[in-house]
Design goal:
This protein has 573 residues and is α/β, with parallel strands linked by helices. It has two domains: 80 residues, no CATH class; 325 residues, 3-Layer(aba) Sandwich (Rossmann fold). It is built from 19 helices and 17 strands. The chain is globular, with a radius of gyration of 28 Å.
Length: 573
């Protein structure tokens, strides 16, 4: 052991000790296996110890302690595990410069890796393994030392600097959020719907118990003869598509000369708790299409759906096709799933047990609270959307920034139980709507392949809610002459990308006769926003222009109130 006095020699010596310990553990394991009557010893027969992962963890722990001791005495920098570049939890210098905090950080990262490795070694089916990974990550994220005031150097430093005022403010923030029933992630005083959000001029020209229909005021002398109906997701407020000036898809579409109408979904209340999926299809897109055709004096309508709104729109188009009614000129689907074979992580939260429980409780009437939906989506990115704000708001007493997307994300919408239960069973659980005749909607068997209108598909490459490969498969399920565009970024940021900002990029490839991987390999990346590409595609399917109307509505549908209307202002429980 001539080199045992050096750091490298010490590491080798400790590793030799741990190898001996591992051998002893294996012998102990074999003895236990023999005592339990496992013939031949599982370890001996399969080369895998019953407790094999644990000696490895102990080895890693010894290496960590050794590295920490060496670092202290040599003033060096350890070569331990490093978090990903996007992980901001350990950005403070103390996590790297202080031996104590560095040890905490490395202990946590090594333990996290060990737990992840154990999950990867689990002998279960693929879906069960994905579920294990998801729940293991929830535990790993929750147990980060950055999430506890006594082990977060920023929290301690802030408390000392403010003489504990930060902790007092944080406790006040916590109490307020308990009363709200949700974590505050944005400075809510900075935004007002109808002022700096959902502010594009327009009028509500129709309403029923489920929707208000908004007609936007034209901004051009002439408008497209064929109007555009936008169907936002019913699980969020519509103004994601109409954020502040310069950041609004609606504003952009109106400025390009489109005659734009939009559905504003109502959050579920006692009187709507019995509404079904068929009600959403009938009272939503199907009714709106007829109203828009009447007001615009048009035979057909361009229709655009986003996320769940796109799924509802696709089903409505399937019902129209089953009726033999030709009321659509084109369909645009933004980050929408029709084939739910690969649903990403959100699908891991939906199984037979959970759906059956929902059906028993609210399947015949009841409400799924919007806050519950919002929390579920938050768990998909817990470090960014939950724990970050626990630390900032409650431990450091900070006030969240003013960010329009987070304000929208916090403005949740509740759903009627019957509608939600039908949706989860026939999509995430049984994946029926893509199959011809597998679902009966509005009294008719729906076959999406009978939809024969031009189709524009937009997916986002880093989407954690609608995997882009799943959105890509829609090209084979419905419509004709499909155009597929892949935007950079995630589910929301990939969609909301105004051209004036000249940010991000998107990918194009006109050859769709290939799988998603090969499509992307041959695709061309274009800088900037995909919005102009969509507008050019719409103009290629134009039926000409007419003089812009001077008044909203018509003799059959009068103005009810100014946009954004009452429904979008309603707060869910």
């Amino acid at each position: 052991m001539g080199n045992s006095s050096s750091p490298g020699g010490s590491s080798a010596y400790l590793e030799s000790l741990m190898k001996a310990g591992q051998q002893s553990m294996k012998q102990f394991d074999d003895a236990i296996a023999a005592a339990m009557g496992v013939g031949g010893g599982r370890a001996a027969g399969q080369g895998t110890s019953w407790f094999a992962p644990y000696p490895d963890y102990v080895t890693q722990a010894w290496r960590l302690w050794n590295d920490s001791i060496v670092k202290v005495f040599t003033a060096g920098t350890g070569s331990g595990i490093q978090p990903s570049r996007v992980d901001k939890r350990f950005k403070d210098d103390a996590w790297h410069e202080s031996p104590y905090y560095d040890l905490l950080r490395q202990s946590y990262l090594r333990t996290s890796k060990q737990l992840s490795d154990l999950v990867d070694q689990a002998q279960v089916d693929d879906k069960s393994k994905l579920q294990l990974r998801f729940y293991a990550r929830q535990f790993i994220d929750a147990m980060s030392p950055s999430n506890f005031p006594g082990t977060n150097p920023e929290v301690i430093r802030t408390a000392i600097k403010t003489r504990a005022a930060s902790l007092a403010t944080g406790m006040h923030n916590l109490i307020e959020d308990i009363q709200k029933g949700r974590i505050t992630r944005v400075d809510e005083s900075a935004f007002e719907v109808g002022q700096n959000l959902a502010a594009t001029p327009g009028s509500v020209v129709f309403e029923n118990e489920l929707i208000q229909l908004i007609e936007y005021a034209p901004q051009t002398t002439d408008v497209e003869k064929t109007p555009l109906l936008i169907v936002p997701p019913c699980i969020n407020k519509y103004y994601l598509l109409d954020l502040g000036a310069g950041n609004s898809f609606v504003e952009y579409a109106v400025a390009q000369g489109h005659r734009v109408f939009l559905i504003s979904w109502r959050s579920a209340v006692a009187e709507t708790q019995f509404l079904t999926w068929d009600d959403y299809v009938t009272l939503g897109p199907l009714k709106a299409i007829d109203v828009v055709r009447d007001i615009a004096d048009a035979d057909r309508v361009h229709a655009l759906g986003f996320c769940v709104g796109g799924t509802i729109l696709s089903c409505a188009a399937g019902v129209l096709a089953a009726r033999g009614e030709h009321k659509l000129a084109s369909i645009t689907l933004l980050t929408t799933m029709i084939d739910f074979a690969d649903t990403g992580e959100i699908g891991l939260l939906i199984d037979e047990t959970s759906v059956a429980l929902r059906e028993a409780v609210i399947g015949r009437g009841g409400i799924l609270p919007g806050k519950e939906l919002a929390f579920t989506f938050g768990t998909l990115r817990a470090n960014d959307l939950i724990w970050r704000y626990v630390v900032e708001n409650y431990f450091k007493g900070a006030t969240p920034d003013a960010f329009d997307l987070l304000y929208w994300d916090s403005d949740s919408v509740s759903l009627p139980g019957p509608m939600y239960c039908w949706y989860t069973r026939n999509t995430y659980l049984e994946n029926k709507i893509k199959e011809a005749g597998k679902t009966i909607q509005c009294g008719l068997p729906v076959d999406l392949s009978k939809i024969k209108v031009p189709l524009y598909l937009l997916a986002s490459r880093e989407d954690h809610i609608v995997p882009w490969q799943s959105a890509y498969r829609s090209k084979d399920l419905m419509g004709r002459d499909p155009r597929f565009v892949l935007a950079a970024s995630g589910h929301v940021a990939g969609v909301i990308n105004p051209p004036a900002r000249n940010k991000r990029s998107y990918w194009l490839n006109d050859n769709l006769d290939r799988d998603a991987k090969n499509w992307l390999e041959q695709a061309t990346e274009k800088p900037g926003s995909w919005w102009p590409d969509w507008d050019a595609w719409m103009k290629r399917h134009s039926s000409g222009t007419v003089r812009a109307p001077t008044q909203p509505g018509n003799d059959n549908f009068h103005v009810i109130e100014a946009a954004p209307g009452r429904y979008v202002r309603q707060k869910s429980d």
